[in-house]
Every structure is written in C-alpha cells, then in structure tokens.
Amino acid sequence: MERRQFMGLFGVGMLATSLPVVLAACAPKAEESEVTETETPITKAEDAAETMGDFAIAGTVTALKESGGISTEIGGKKVYVFQNPTDESIVALDPTCNHQGCPVKLAGDALECSCHGSMFGLDGSLTKGPATEGLALYEVKEEGDNILVKVA
Ligand code: FES
Fold first, then answer.
1. How far is the CA of 141 from the centre of ligand 1 (A)?
2. CA–CA distance from 149 to each of 48, 95, 145 (Å)?
3. How far is the CA of 48 from the centre of ligand 1 (A)?
4. Centre of ligand 1 from the C-alpha of residue 82, in Å
5. pLDDT, the chain, mean
6. pTM for this prediction
7. Whether the predicted pLDDT of 69 surpasses 70
8. Which atom of ligand 1 is nearest to the CA of 118?
C-alpha cells in the first residue's frame, strides 16, 4: 500500500470514528433542558423539607372540619387532632389514656376516655381518674390547608 493510499484510508477512518462525537456535540440544547427540568423539583423538595423542620403533616383543615377529628400516627406516636370548640384553635395531643391505654375522644368541652370514664381538659390535663396523668400535648401549626404537628 502506498503512502498516499494509506493516508486516504486513514482520513476516512478518522472521520468515521469522530462522527458520533461531532453529532453529540451538536445537540447540547436538548441535554441542557433535561438537566434544568430535573434540578428544579429537587430544589423545591429541599425547600419544603427545611420549611417543615420537625413538623409532619397530620391532615388537612378541610378534612378536620368534615370529620370533627383526625386520628393518625407520626413517627410511631399516636396523634389526635381536633378543633377546640371554644376558640376554634387546632389542638394535637397523644390520645392514649395512661390508665389502660384506651384512646380519648372529644366530648363537648373536654376529652373523655370511653373505657373507664377518665376526663381531660382540652389542653390534655387530667380532670378525673382513674387515669393518673394528663395527655401529652403536641405543638401544632397550620400552613395553607395542612395541619403540621411536632411530636418530638
Ligand atoms: S383506659 Fe382510660 S380510664 Fe381506663
């Protein structure tokens, strides 16, 4: 093979192997837009986590008004959310009666344990036994329609 013939074949080979690289370099706009789209939701999720801090969503104000009370669990702890009938503030507490572990429910202007009749104030304080301790009150706040509760 003569040198001129070899160089001609070498040039064609170089062009063929570099063609995919050249084509990839010509289409950066599609890749850039995909990166931008995936970065935006990640940033929003991080912002939401910072805003919530130690709080978790227990339910919505809409659901609370429809049902009168929300019973749920956050971080393995039982949470009962209700609206104070006196001032309409939202209250969240651990509904577990310390007598034998039954859940309490809103009964007029108090919380009542249906098992053996213990009574509690709307702030969780014990007003009548046989339970011997009040209920753990949780910090609660509203953000839009969400009810956020801090159980830690
Ligand atoms: S479990 Fe609540 S009063 Fe007994």
1. 29
2. 15, 14, 13
3. 39
4. 20
5. 77
6. 0.66
7. yes
8. 3
- Atom number of ligand 1 nearest to Cα 104: 2
Locate the ligand 1 atom nearest the alpha carbon of residue 117 and give its number. 3
75-83 mean pLDDT: 94
The answer to whether 117 touches 31, Cβ cutoff 8 Å, is no
Alpha helices in 26-133 (DSSP H): 28-52, 61-67
Q: Give rounded-to-5 percent helix, strand, coil for the chain.
A: 35, 30, 30
With residue 59 as reference, give the H or E element that holds it. Answer: strand 56-60
Phi, psi of 118 (to 5 degrees): -60, 145
pLDDT of residue 3: 55
Structure tokens at 73: 């669990």
How confident is the model over 97-111, as pLDDT tens digits?
A: 999 999 999 999 999
CA 115 / ligand 1 centre spacing (Å): 5
